[in-house]
Amino acid sequence: MAKRFGQEARQLHDTAIGKGRLLALSSARFDLVPNLTLAVVLVAGSATVASGGMTLGELVAFVSLQLMLIWPIESLGWIIANAQEAMTAADRIYEVLDTPPSIVDRPGAVTVAESRGHVRFEKVGFTYPGTDAPVLRRIDLDVRPGETLAIVGATGCGKTSLVSLLPRLYDVTGGRITLDGRDIRDIQLDSLRRLVGMAFEDPTLFSMSVRENLTLGRRETTDDEIYEALRVAQADFVYDLPWGLDTRIGEQGLSLSGGQRQRLALARAVIGHPRVLVLDDPLSALDVHTEALVEEALARVLHGTTALLVVHRPSTVALADRVALLDGGEIAAIGTHSELLETVPAYRAALSAEALGVPDDVVSR
Ligand SMILES: Nc1ncnc2c1ncn2[C@@H]1O[C@H](COP(=O)(O)OP(=O)(O)O)[C@@H](O)[C@H]1O
Ligand SMILES: [Mg+2]
Question: For residues 291 and 361, is the Cβ–Cβ distance under 8 A?
Fold first, then answer.
């Protein structure tokens, strides 16, 4: 890999040097031609003036006119070159902007402002676009208003896929998901995403301030609500950042640790008290101490909120009213934690195997 990297770095270096050379050469030519012409005009002009073929005034007028024209013509060259670069860049941006989104409002989709938070999965099947093998098959779930359902299962069994269907990050390919009895595809995407708060395992933070990241799509959020959400997520570290809530983070800003990013994502999910919460293993990168604090605060938030919670550790399972065990894209068992512990050996195995594994991104404060 180092060798390949070396080769490609060398290639990039050579291309850049080549470009520099070309630029230097062409700008030298740009400058040389008018100046050479000027020299010729001066020499030939002086000779003509001396022999009386032209007055001195005519020569001066000609030279000043020539000097006036050189600059605009030269810059025209640069403008054309820059315009070509800009057009290439714009092409790339338009490629993204022109991609038609595959998840759109159905005709006749309605705005829903209030919800009881009754979520049902009815014979839901799901296959990723462009693949053949279904990831989820015949999923039936009934999450009552205010209930917290934990989803447990081995890595790769489809937990993330399952919970990302509810905020419509993907659309089901079979069956349907309903919110208060209405197919979520008949709810306007805007209002659905307002009702469903979400935090995923590998959170995306954008290159903007902490505040903007937290209030994404909820511009009307007050500082008190932000404070409360940060407390739930134990993310008060943001107040210690150089510019507090206005610190820029993400690609072009301050980089945060995995645990810090996860806590910000969690704060973003709970801000504004969404009726339904989708949390995909939101505590996986936290140290045990912070995890316990977040769980305590989260328990209060989950009270009265319908939630789908992907969990790995037994301690987090305690937050849930019921647990569904997912195996190979199907619900293998569903019940309370203690019921499953007693009657389903696979559940015991899934939990204990996870409990022994140490997340690779443990961050201590
Ligand atoms: N974007 C995707 N495109 C195609 N296949 C995917 C995609 N994301 C996940 N998968 C596949 O779907 C299966 C379930 O993945 P996932 O839902 O992430 O599992 P879990 O969260 O339980 O670990 C895996 O086999 C994975 O390879
Ligand atoms: Mg996952």
Answer: no
Instruction: State the DSSP string of 250-303.
Output: STTSB---HHHHHHHHHHHHHTT--SEEEEESTTTTB-HHHHHHHHHHHHHHHT
Give the bridge partners for 307, in sequence order. 148, 277
Neighbouring residues of 362: CB distance < 8 A, sequence distance ≥ 6? 259, 285, 286, 287
Torsion 89-91-95-98 (CA) sign: positive
Rg of the Cα atoms in the chain? 32
**Ligand 1 atom 9: the closest Cα is on which residue?**
161
Q: Is 184 exposed, middle or buried (0-12, 13-18, 19+ CB in 10 A)?
A: buried
What distance in angstroms lies between residue 309's CA and the mean position of ligand 1's atoms?
A: 17
Which residues of the chain fall short of a pLDDT of 70?
Answer: 252-253, 353-365
The residues placing their C-beta within 5 Å of ligand 2, an ion, are: 160
The identity of residue 286, as a single letter, is: L
Please name the amino acid found at residue 172: V
Q: Longest C-alpha distance within the chain, in Å? A: 117
Best CA proximity match to 135, nearest among 146, 147, 124, 144: 124
Going from N- to C-terminal start, the domains of the chain cover 2-97, 119-356
pLDDT at 354 (0 to 100): 57
Ligand 1 atom closest to Cα of residue 153? 22
Bridge partners of 148, per DSSP, are 307
Residue 91 in tokens = 């092409």
First to last CA, the chain: 34
Q: Whose CA is nearest to atom 2 of ligand 1?
A: 128
Q: What is the number of the ligand 1 atom nearest to the C-alpha of 326?
A: 22
Residues 6+ away with beta carbon under 8 Å from 296: none
pLDDT in the model for residue 351: 80
Q: Give the Cβ contact number of residue 162 at 10 Å.
A: 26
Residue type, 308: L
Helix, strand, coil percentages in the chain from 3-state DSSP, rounded to 5: 50, 20, 35
Q: Per residue in 214-262, pLDDT tens?
A: 998 788 889 999 999 999 999 989 999 999 999 998 776 678 888 899 8
We find that the CATH architecture of domain 119-356 is 3-Layer(aba) Sandwich (3.40)
